[in-house]
Specification:
Shape: elongated
Number of strands: 0
Radius of gyration: 26 Å
Largest sheet: none
Structural class: mainly alpha
Number of helices: 11
Strand content: under 5%
Helix content: over 70%
Distance between the termini: 45 Å
Length: 361
């Protein structure tokens, strides 16, 4: 009780109040928080390019402007060249998803299965698929679906405005923002905090750049091999496979599932299933044997079993979003715990001897 002073009580109350206010902001303005997180991720991805321009003599503000302008040009090219093609493929695919077409496809597939597996009951596939299709195409749900779609497009439009704007200032004034935050840290913890932030930023930057490049390579490879396999919607499926691949372990499963479903919808039978599965298998072999060793040799610092467990926890906690953020969040916690533990054991402010931190070179 003697250690409790008015100063400590006031600091505790202020800290608790700040935490409560922060949680309320996150809860009430979750979209803005997500936009800021996306802006930070974008700044981590682009920071090496800005640093390279700055080291070559270009003013940092001009370098940030040039890099972001290049990104906007690339996104503009994608929006005018790639997105219309994907939209047309999606429209053609959606046109094939009428109730009657789904019923006919399920009947043909069911007949093929009954010829090979006589123990299956008649109507097992047609009845179930028709019931699911009726639920999906329920007229009463159309207004809800339209409202959700409008909400998604509104969020995308807001993100296009907010994320590049915020990323510009993160890239331009990142060091200043870091210094302002570190001023809040007591002097005896300054060096530890600086080291933790520096290692976290370096590791996250490397991780996000690796994931982005891996997704692009997997998407392009999937598009190419699915086209060779004869899939009509190969571009849209390839992009979807590349996006799904950002989820370790479960992404490839989604890629197999999506390619098989689309091939069945296109043909109405199993004629393309084997070829599409072989195409995705080749892509996964390339990913595991070439892309991942090349891209993640320095960014991966956790055992595969630990990553699998972390992803499962993320999925249980927050679904798809939890699976996406589980690994980077675990990386942040691991670096922070490791560095803080080392600091308590080695820095002179905690003990009499100090040694260089592990892996500092």
């Amino acid at each position: 009780m003697k250690n409790i002073t008015l100063d400590k009580v006031v600091k505790f109350i202020l800290g608790l109040s700040a935490a409560v206010v922060g949680l309320m902001i996150v809860y009430n303005y979750s979209n803005l928080v997500i936009f800021l997180v996306l802006a930070m991720i974008l700044s981590y991805v682009l920071d090496p390019f800005v640093n390279r321009l700055q080291s070559s003599g270009v003013n940092r503000t001009l370098g940030v402007t040039l890099v972001l302008f290049t990104v906007i040009l690339i996104l503009g090219f994608i929006s005018t060249s790639v997105i219309p093609i994907v939209a047309n493929q999606m429209a053609e695919l959606a046109a094939q998803l009428s109730l009657e077409n789904i019923r006919q496809i399920s009947v043909r597939i069911e007949n093929q299965l009954l010829e090979k597996f006589e123990v299956l009951p008649d109507g097992f596939l047609e009845d179930n698929i028709t019931a699911i299709a009726n639920d999906l195409f329920d007229v009463n749900q159309i207004s809800t679906i339209i409202g959700d779609a409008l909400g998604i497009f509104t969020n995308i439009f807001s993100a296009v405005l907010v994320v590049p704007f915020a990323a510009f200032f993160f890239l331009k004034d990142g060091s200043k923002i870091r210094r302002d935050l570190l001023r809040l840290v007591p002097n005896k913890y300054f060096e530890t905090s600086l080291t933790v932030i520096d290692k976290i930023e370096n590791r996250l930057g490397l991780y996000f750049r690796s994931v982005l490049m891996q997704s692009i390579l997997v998407a392009l490879s999937s598009w190419a091999f699915l086209s060779i396999a004869g899939l009509g919607n190969s571009m849209s499926v390839g992009i979807a496979v590349g996006l799904a691949n950002t989820i370790p372990y479960f992404g490839p499963i989604l890629g197999y599932f999506l390619s098989v479903i689309v091939s069945i919808i296109e043909t109405g039978n199993f004629s393309l299933v084997a070829a599409c599965m072989l195409a995705i298998l080749i892509v996964q072999l390339l990913d595991n044997l070439v892309f991942q060793p090349m891209l993640f040799s320095r960014s991966a610092d956790m055992h595969p079993v630990a990553i699998l467990f972390i992803i499962l926890v993320g999925a249980e906690t927050a679904g798809i979003l939890g699976m996406l953020i589980a690994v980077p969040l675990a990386t942040v916690l691991k670096i922070a715990i490791t560095q803080i533990n080392w600091s308590f054991n080695n820095y002179q402010i905690f003990s009499k001897e100090a040694n260089p931190p592990p892996g500092s070179n």
